[in-house]
Design goal:
Layout lengths: L5 E4 L2 E9 L2 H9 L1 H4 L15 E6 L22 E11 L3 E5 L6 E9 L2 E9 L6 H19 L7 H21 L1
Antiparallel strand pairs: 1-2, 2-7, 3-4, 4-5, 5-6, 6-7
Family: Belongs to the AHA1 family.
InterPro entries: ASHA1/2-like_C, START-like_dom_sf
Pfam families: AHSA1
Length: 178
């Protein structure tokens, strides 16, 4: 299993991560504000189709290690708030919701594999211009989630994201030429 997300269709990126279970623990990290806030964003999730998903991003709070925010992301330095809508709700196996700032949708699928849980994250309907940042962002956030679930100190967000975003720029360009 590659850590890199696969571009499976135009505007679609898919990631797989094997996480320590049980499935209910991983589901809690997707849906409970205090746990989701350790790797992605805090905020309540209304547990139903059509329910609101609050996303309060504060990247500097994801790791205790020092970070460097690139100039193009300085507007996120003090955090960013947004909302989305639940499009699928099938606990504890599947959660889909819209993604702020466009018509895209993110889906989290959980499948038990012995004591572990396979997480498949698919982000669909991303514009080509948003793909490198979104793919680099998910790659970075998922790395933080893996570290959190294994009890390790995660790497700082932007110091990790910056080279990943550059790598995904190459991957997106290559995929669009295929």
């Amino acid at each position: 299993m590659s850590d890199y997300g696969a571009i499976t269709a135009p505007g679609t990126v898919r990631f797989e991560r094997l996480l320590p279970g049980p499935i209910e623990r991983v589901w809690a990290y997707l849906t409970e504000s205090d746990k989701r806030g350790t790797w992605l964003a805090t905020g309540a999730v209304e547990p139903r189709i059509g329910g609101q998903v609050e996303l309060r991003f504060l990247h500097s709070g994801l790791s205790p290690l020092p970070d460097e925010i690139p100039a193009k992301y300085k507007s996120l330095e003090k955090g960013a708030d947004s909302t989305a809508r639940v499009t699928r709700w099938e606990p504890p196996r599947l959660l889909s919701h819209s993604w702020p700032g466009g018509d895209s949708e993110v889906t989290f699928e959980l499948t038990p594999q012995g004591e572990d849980v396979l997480l498949v994250l698919t982000h669909r309907h991303l514009g080509t211009e948003k793909m490198p940042s979104a793919a680099g962002g998910w790659h970075t956030h998922l790395g933080i989630l893996v570290d959190r679930l294994h009890g390790r100190v995660p790497q700082p967000f932007f110091l990790t994201h910056t080279p990943l975003e550059a790598e995904y720029e190459k991957r997106v360009a290559s995929a669009s030429q295929s």
